[in-house]
Each structure stands twice: as structure tokens, then as C-alpha cells.
Design brief:
The protein is an alpha/beta fold. It has seven helices and nine strands; from the N terminus they run βαββαββαβββαβααα. Strands 1, 2, 3, 4, 5, 6, 7, 8 and 9 form a nine-stranded mixed β-sheet that branches. Helix 1 links the parallel strand 1 and strand 2.
Length: 213
């Protein structure tokens, strides 16, 4: 877990995320950012342009850049804040579950996220298996990675399913991150839902029947 990757469209929350990384993550962990200038927080930052028009393509680009050097990474939303124990607990859970299982995502729980990751719904000391998860702050390996589809909403759902289809298992870590909530793609849930429909209908008709019909 020597690299954290972030894609952003000039989120106002990004400086807070970077400050929390600087405070709570070991100095030898490097950062890859798509779409933002170097913030100068006292560590190695690689910046690449973010020319994507959607969440999926933006993260695919920066993840593949990090995978040129690292086989294990953490993917982070640009609108989260780490706590003093976030990185430590995630690292401990990765060590435990990646040793015995063919892990896909091992992700932090949060206060604003899909239901199965909401911290208030989970026991603090337990790691939970998951079919679907949102990698607000999540560990993944190069071997497990499947590219996101080129959409915003449902990109992580589809990726999780495809990773499971090739034998990988997902977990909700004991680690916690605060999530400001939908700073990246906005709060218009209806628009986000239907913007994804054309691609899903054309490429995942079985999921289109579940989510749109």
C-alpha cells in the first residue's frame, strides 16, 4: 500500500483530504492525482491531466499510471477525510485478508455511503464480506483490477460484479473515513441515475432490467 490515487475536478474538499493524508499516512506512501496541481504537502505527488468526462475513465487513467510502478494501491475519493486510524486499520485488514483470500476490494466504512458500508450499521471490530462496495478509500491489487465502465453512477457496482465473476472477494474494513458526500458528481440523483442508462442498456442489458425497468 505504497500509493494513493485520486481523481478530481477541482474539489474544494481536496486540500482537506491531502492534509489528513499528510497527518495520518506514512511519509513513504506516494500520491497520484488526476486533474489537480501539486499541493506541496511534503511528499511525492505525481499529477496527470484529467481529461475524462466521467468518474470511470478518470480513475482508470490514474490507476493505470500508478500500476506502472506499484502492484498494490489505495483508491481515494477526493471528498473524504482520513482519521488517525484509517490507514493503520486498513493496512492491518489487508494483511489479514489478502493472505488467505483472493481479495478484490478491501474498503473503508463511512458515514455517507451505500447502506452496507455505513459505520453505524456495522460492529467496530469486525470485517464484513460484501458483494457491492464503494471504494471511498479502498485497497486493490493490480491482479484484481478491472476497469470501471465509462459512467458515473453504477461504475463501482459493475466493476465489483466483474471482479467477483473472475474469483475475487470484497470486504468492508474496520477502517473509517468521513465522506463529505457527492462533491464529485453532484447531488442530482435522478440525473446521475439516467445519465448511466444508455451505456448500461447497450453493454449490460441484464443489469438494465434490474436497475431501470
Amino acid at each position: 500500500m505504497k500509493a494513493i490515487v485520486i481523481a478530481t475536478k477541482e474539489s474544494k474538499s481536496l486540500p482537506v483530504l491531502l492534509a489528513s493524508i499528510n497527518a495520518y499516512v506514512p511519509d513513504d506512501v506516494v500520491i497520484y492525482i488526476a486533474g489537480h496541481e501539486r499541493w506541496g504537502i511534503g511528499r511525492n505527488i505525481t499529477c496527470i491531466p484529467n481529461t475524462a468526462t466521467n468518474y470511470g475513465d478518470a480513475y482508470n487513467a490514474v490507476v493505470h499510471e500508478a500500476f506502472k510502478k506499484y502492484d498494490e494501491i489505495i483508491v481515494a475519493n477526493d471528498d473524504i477525510v482520513l482519521t488517525p486510524t484509517t490507514y493503520q486499520l486498513l493496512a492491518e485488514d489487508v494483511k489479514q485478508f489478502n493472505r488467505w483470500e483472493k481479495s478484490g476490494w478491501i474498503v473503508a466504512r463511512s458515514d455517507y455511503v451505500r447502506s452496507n458500508q455505513i459505520a453505524a450499521h456495522l460492529e467496530p471490530g469486525l470485517v464484513y464480506p460484501a458483494n457491492q462496495c464503494s471504494p471511498l478509500f479502498g485497497y486493490v491489487t493490480k491482479a484484481a483490477w478491472v476497469d470501471y465502465p465509462p459512467i458515473n453512477w453504477y461504475s463501482d457496482d459493475i466493476q465489483c460484479l466483474e471482479m467477483m465473476q473472475i474469483g475475487f472477494k470484497h470486504y468492508i474494513s474496520r477502517a473509517f473515513v468521513h465522506h463529505a458526500g457527492s462533491q464529485t458528481i453532484g447531488m442530482d440523483n435522478k440525473k446521475n441515475h439516467f445519465d448511466a442508462e444508455p451505456w448500461i442498456k447497450a453493454n449490460k442489458p441484464e443489469l438494465h432490467k434490474i436497475w431501470f425497468e
